[in-house]
Amino acid sequence: MLLGGTVTDQHSPALENLLSETRSFPPSAEFAARANAQPELYERAAADRLGFWADQARNYLTWSKPFTEVLDFSGAPTARWFADGQLNAAYNAVDRHVEAGHGDRVAILFEGEPGDTRSLTYADLKDEVSRAANALGALGVSTGDRVAIYLPMIPEAVIAMLACARIGATHSVVFGGFSAEALFSRITDADAKLVITADGGYRRGKPSALKPAVDEALTKGATNVTNVLVVARTEQDVAWTDGRDVWWHEALAGASTEHTPVPVDAEHPLFILYTSGTTGKPKGILHTTGGYLTQCAYTHSVVFDLKPETDVYWCTADVGWVTGHSYVTYGPLINGATQVLYEGTPDTPHKGRWWEIVAKYQVTILYTAPTAIRTCMKWGEQVPAEFDLSSLRVLGSVGEPINPEAWMWYRRVIGADRTPIVDTWWQTETGAIMISPLPGVTAARPGSAQTPLPGISADIWNDAGEPVGKGGGGYLVLDEPWPSMLRGIWGDPERFKDTYWSRFPGTYFAGDGAKYDEDGNIWLLGRVDDVMNVSGHRLSTTEIESALVSHDWVAEAAVVGASDDTTGQAVVAFVILRGEAVERADEAGEGHDVVAELRNHVAKEIGPIAKPRSILVVAELPKTRSGKIMRRLLRDVAEHRPVGDVTTLADTSVMDLISSGLNAAP
Ligand code: WT7
């Protein structure tokens, strides 16, 4: 078969349909009266933006040395917030709740995929994080060092992040679905000294190994990794390198529960998180401490209306993504929340697993991604209907635009037509939520992220850098600095400037297209660069193309994101093969299931999430006279649309060839 999967005929709904969406869901009077965020918040922030942020930094955080400066943007585009203050992230997330008498409050309700459970109070968390911090110290990790974390969604993931923060080491979490190759490049780019991993985690009903990928990554080239700390989760057999590998439980068993958090400057690097850009090499997005934590905690409180004494919060994101950093580890714990942490997949052992968890723990706030909602829609509303979801009171969405149909389904089926929905727009780079309704204030408009939060300034500009105003469309920009903004790309200041600050000199360009409706609500329209959004995960077309051409059989490759009903976009690849290489493999008896081979190759190079949904073998690729691949035309093919304007192609017959090849596919 030529195509690795099906290319659907569905397109995302036309913009005109979106903008004619006028349904409005105002908060109930009851909700509004009790909400953390009141309408005055917008006025206060507008009247004195920096004073507003200074108030949030003092309200939500405990500083070991109070700050006197708020914003210093003299080194633009790198901002410094609260720069003369000092604090410790782990102290703020854990210790101070214990000191305030909340040590018995549950911090983490862990649900393993096989059904095992653990509950950790804030006092337990303080002991575990302290032990882990002491263990890291014993392995020679200290303030300023980098630590790579490659773990499943188990409490140790959160504990490891906080243990790093406690000693002032900078963590770089690598999603467990990334390959050894991807892990290696992240370990070397960040120059990590230690890797924290597990034997494996449970996924889709069986143990899935992690440690072998670390072992393999560390053979790919020179690194400065001196130790690998290994959590025993699945008890699978693992290879062991004496002197390098250390069991987590053994290291912690001998460690004291007493540990003094290291106060760091507000601008001390808290973490690096790699994300895909428009070139082949992922960017190490750098976040620092004071401003980042301020905005995480503030947004977590006002957007989700968290009441720490009574709410049970659940964000389904993995800590391998920024959502897991800001809304699993830092935001909720700084706010003293009780939260669910679930290890596995939504359909193991049955399609109602998430709803079973909501009912079991009486979850009140649920934060997830549109792709998950659309998947549940496909499974049918009879599945959630079997569970008691009446505890839910706020629903959140993040990662990609949520289409109005999915929004309405989420509200009606999961939220019993009662709960506010917050559609939160932000990015790895922004660190925390930027544009979102406030659940007790905003009349919600299905499908729109609506309004910049109090304290945040965003706008939509045209090509010339002029504001488009109501009803207009263009590029989303953030035209004032914000506390949790990235402080740079690790080791690459030039790329930082080029990527975000050069499209409109001096203003942050997010990479997203957007439009205002007549009421001034912001509608996000997806990326305008070569970045795809697959299931809320950012993938680079160029990165997948490089992975494909690194295979012997491939002479050239072009990748596009085609719209997909469930995942938002799907990876579709067009490849030109090296005929002789395929024949040689064939003769050597290696077979020539080109599509399967290349899909697996991408999984090996980047990770299973980057596997193309379909791979089309073609004889030529459409290029302009200057040699640039016209992805727009390939997208037309992938989405089964009539191919658009081909007049700028060097050879206009190429598209006929590709289209006929596609139609001839069995
Ligand atoms: C890109 C950022 C933020 C955590 C998850 C993704 C898209 C994100 C929304 C939303 C429309 C959204 C944007 C953005 N995006 N949230 N609510 N509505 N689009 O983080 O991997 O850094 O990706 O995701 O295109 O630029 P990320």
From TrEMBL:
<keyword id="KW-0436">Ligase</keyword>
<dbReference type="InterPro" id="IPR025110">
    <property type="entry name" value="AMP-bd_C"/>
</dbReference>
<dbReference type="InterPro" id="IPR042099">
    <property type="entry name" value="ANL_N_sf"/>
</dbReference>
<dbReference type="GO" id="GO:0003987">
    <property type="term" value="F:acetate-CoA ligase activity"/>
</dbReference>
<feature type="domain" description="AMP-dependent synthetase/ligase">
    <location>
        <begin position="100"/>
        <end position="490"/>
    </location>
</feature>
<dbReference type="InterPro" id="IPR032387">
    <property type="entry name" value="ACAS_N"/>
</dbReference>
<feature type="binding site">
    <location>
        <position position="512"/>
    </location>
    <ligand>
        <name>ATP</name>
    </ligand>
</feature>
<feature type="binding site">
    <location>
        <position position="538"/>
    </location>
    <ligand>
        <name>ATP</name>
    </ligand>
</feature>
<feature type="domain" description="AMP-binding enzyme C-terminal">
    <location>
        <begin position="543"/>
        <end position="628"/>
    </location>
</feature>
<dbReference type="InterPro" id="IPR000873">
    <property type="entry name" value="AMP-dep_synth/lig_dom"/>
</dbReference>
<feature type="binding site">
    <location>
        <position position="535"/>
    </location>
    <ligand>
        <name>CoA</name>
    </ligand>
</feature>
<dbReference type="Pfam" id="PF16177">
    <property type="entry name" value="ACAS_N"/>
</dbReference>
<feature type="binding site">
    <location>
        <begin position="203"/>
        <end position="206"/>
    </location>
    <ligand>
        <name>CoA</name>
    </ligand>
</feature>
<keyword id="KW-0007">Acetylation</keyword>
<feature type="binding site">
    <location>
        <position position="323"/>
    </location>
    <ligand>
        <name>CoA</name>
    </ligand>
</feature>
<keyword id="KW-0479">Metal-binding</keyword>
<comment type="function">
    <text>Catalyzes the conversion of acetate into acetyl-CoA (AcCoA), an essential intermediate at the junction of anabolic and catabolic pathways. AcsA undergoes a two-step reaction. In the first half reaction, AcsA combines acetate with ATP to form acetyl-adenylate (AcAMP) intermediate. In the second half reaction, it can then transfer the acetyl group from AcAMP to the sulfhydryl group of CoA, forming the product AcCoA.</text>
</comment>
<keyword id="KW-0460">Magnesium</keyword>
<dbReference type="Pfam" id="PF00501">
    <property type="entry name" value="AMP-binding"/>
</dbReference>
<keyword id="KW-0067">ATP-binding</keyword>
<feature type="binding site">
    <location>
        <position position="551"/>
    </location>
    <ligand>
        <name>Mg(2+)</name>
    </ligand>
</feature>
<keyword id="KW-0547">Nucleotide-binding</keyword>
<feature type="binding site">
    <location>
        <position position="549"/>
    </location>
    <ligand>
        <name>Mg(2+)</name>
    </ligand>
</feature>
<dbReference type="InterPro" id="IPR011904">
    <property type="entry name" value="Ac_CoA_lig"/>
</dbReference>
<feature type="modified residue" description="N6-acetyllysine">
    <location>
        <position position="628"/>
    </location>
</feature>
<dbReference type="InterPro" id="IPR045851">
    <property type="entry name" value="AMP-bd_C_sf"/>
</dbReference>
<feature type="binding site">
    <location>
        <begin position="399"/>
        <end position="401"/>
    </location>
    <ligand>
        <name>ATP</name>
    </ligand>
</feature>
<feature type="domain" description="Acetyl-coenzyme A synthetase N-terminal">
    <location>
        <begin position="40"/>
        <end position="93"/>
    </location>
</feature>
<protein>
    <recommendedName>
        <fullName>Acetyl-coenzyme A synthetase</fullName>
        <ecNumber>6.2.1.1</ecNumber>
    </recommendedName>
</protein>
<feature type="binding site">
    <location>
        <position position="527"/>
    </location>
    <ligand>
        <name>ATP</name>
    </ligand>
</feature>
<feature type="binding site">
    <location>
        <begin position="423"/>
        <end position="428"/>
    </location>
    <ligand>
        <name>ATP</name>
    </ligand>
</feature>
<feature type="binding site">
    <location>
        <position position="554"/>
    </location>
    <ligand>
        <name>Mg(2+)</name>
    </ligand>
</feature>
<dbReference type="Pfam" id="PF13193">
    <property type="entry name" value="AMP-binding_C"/>
</dbReference>
<comment type="similarity">
    <text>Belongs to the ATP-dependent AMP-binding enzyme family.</text>
</comment>
<dbReference type="InterPro" id="IPR020845">
    <property type="entry name" value="AMP-binding_CS"/>
</dbReference>
